[in-house]
Write a structure and sequence with these properties.
This protein has three domains: about 210 residues, 3-Layer(bba) Sandwich (FAD/NAD(P)-binding domain); about 100 residues, no CATH class; about 90 residues, D-Amino Acid Oxidase, Chain A, domain 2 (2-Layer Sandwich). It is globular, with a radius of gyration of 22 Å. By secondary structure, the protein is α+β, with helices and mostly antiparallel strands. Helix content is about 35%, strand content about 25%. The chain binds flavin-adenine dinucleotide (FAD). This is FAD-dependent monooxygenase.
Length: about 425
């Protein structure tokens, strides 16, 4: 079989990339190892930049109609006696413009929407139950059951997640950072009125609640590394109590989980591949970087990679500029953005990693100052949203640390918008006439 682009892996990243390419008349073959829906939980929070990208793909209305909008993340810090000691907010509406909210969507449902949209194009060829096992120079080697297949292509993109065959073939080595904690994760019914995200912590406990559509809520509960086995031996009522202690609003709801089997262990890791491109091959999403789930960025980074690589490849093919060297534009745009998000997520993870009262006190003060200082608040939401990048400077750190007072004056809307990535920032090769 011959094609222009071969994509290994039909997760959110691979499917977004495929849709982008087929909409631009590029011939795409995609191999997806699984035949049926994945049984595991994965990312479900869509950040504003992802919504902007889906609008460009004509899917904004469909995706938002099947999601729960999150304007505000409530951060509750509880005392040892589980009373609310402090409450702060991370508010997406500090971002001017249409894309000023996050959306929670069931992961498999989002995959269905993307696959259905791509399948409407005759130039999209989807092979489910087919694994990519390796490559020769211009051929992908595939396996479907006992059958072996080969696909010849001009470009090969690895979107297979953390254990990427394409990354291995490119001889790009990664160095993983592990954390001192794991998470229990599960979705269950929620009260209808519980629609904002909530992060509830004490000095030694953490529960994140992210409302999904259909009156469901996705939860993540932090446990020390190695505690899972022992926890699973306890009656399920022990799990219910861990939740209702911190979130009394979930009483009567979390109890609808009656079996530990539904509750999954999530092991956070962090890595950033030193490069994304080699010859006519590139990696995107979790194949290129893994990020601590605290900031809800993993799936969004895959979507943002797909947007840049897809636009670039379509331009290269359309303009007959197929020299693989041009793929380096993708890395140039995405690498530093991804690195910043990885660092932010890592810092957020560290803020909850140490079960000591002074750490909890510092965390609470930092969030308070972020909420009081409109510039810090905007920076935080901008960086999380993916719409732009504005790194914190020494002055910001001093404000966060309480060394100098907070700024009270907000930025005008125009100045905020100047911080958003422009079309030239996203696709710099276009206007410089480089491709
Ligand atoms: C268990 C788990 C829980 C997570 N929870 C969260 C969360 O709560 N919040 C958050 O923000 N992020 C979370 N993430 C991260 C987030 O889901 C990912 O960042 C996101 O899904 C990355 O998308 P992707 O398309 O790059 O990779 P994936 O979603 O991993 O998709 C890769 C696809 O490739 C297929 N595949 C793999 N190998 C091959 C092969 N050799 N040939 C063909 N196909 C192949 C797989 O079956 C899969 O469909 C989680 C990740 C994991 C693994």
């Amino acid at each position: 079989m011959k094609t222009q682009v071969f994509i290994s892996g039909g997760g959110i990243g691979g499917l977004t990339l495929a849709l982008k390419l087929v909409q631009r008349n590029v011939e795409v073959v995609m191999a997806e190892r699984l035949k049926a829906k994945a049984p595991t939980y994965k990312g479900e929070l869509l950040q504003p930049k992802s919504l902007q990208i889906f609008e460009g793909l004509g899917l904004y209305d469909e995706i938002t109609a099947r999601s729960n909008e999150i304007k505000v993340l409530d951060m509750l810090e509880l005392s040892s006696s589980l009373q609310v000691r402090d409450q702060t907010f991370m508010d997406y509406s500090v971002l001017p413009g249409k894309f000023n909210a996050a959306f929670m969507v069931h992961h498999e449902e989002l995959k269905d929407i993307l696959l259905k949209a791509a399948s409407e194009y005759k130039n999209f060829h989807y092979m489910s139950g087919t694994s990519c096992t390796g490559y020769t120079e211009n051929t992908a080697l595939l396996k479907a059951g006992k059958e072996k297949l080969e696909v010849e292509a001009e470009f090969f993109f690895g979107a297979e997640g953390r254990a990427s065959v394409t990354r291995k073939h490119m001889e790009v080595d990664i160095k993983q950072t592990a954390y001192n904690h794991h998470f229990l994760t599960v979705s269950f019914p929620r009260p209808e009125t519980f629609t904002d995200g909530q992060i509830i912590s004490t000095y030694n406990r953490f529960l994140g609640l992210f409302p999904l559509p259909d009156n469901q809520v996705r939860s993540v509960y932090l446990i020390p590394e190695g505690d899972y086995k022992e926890l699973k031996e306890k009656p399920i009522s022990h799990f219910h109590k861990l939740y209702t202690d911190l979130a009394p609003a979930m009483d009567g709801y979390v109890q609808q989980l009656t079996d530990w089997k539904k509750i999954q262990l999530m092991i956070p890791v962090m890595f950033h591949a030193p490069s994304y491109v080699r010859d006519n091959k590139a990696i995107i999403g979790d194949a290129a970087h893994a990020v601590h789930p605290m900031a809800g960025e993993g799936m969004n980074m895959a979507i943002q990679d797909a947007d840049i690589l897809g636009e670039l490849t379509a331009d290269m093919i359309e303009n007959h500029k197929k020299n693989p060297e041009n793929l380096k534009w993708y890395e140039k745009v995405r690498y530093k953005r991804a690195d910043h998000v990885i660092q932010l997520s890592h810092l957020a993870a560290l803020a909850y990693s140490y079960p000591f009262k002074p750490v909890s006190f510092l965390r609470q003060k930092t969030f308070e100052r972020m909420e009081e200082d409109p510039i810090l608040h905007f920076k935080q939401m901008l960086n999380v949203s993916g719409l732009g990048m504005w790194k914190e400077n020494v002055r910001d750190r001093f404000i966060q640390g309480g060394i100098i007072p907070v700024r009270l004056r907000d930025l005008p809307k125009k100045s905020k918008e100047l911080r958003y990535y422009t079309r030239e920032d996203d696709y710099p090769w276009k206007d410089e006439g480089l491709i």
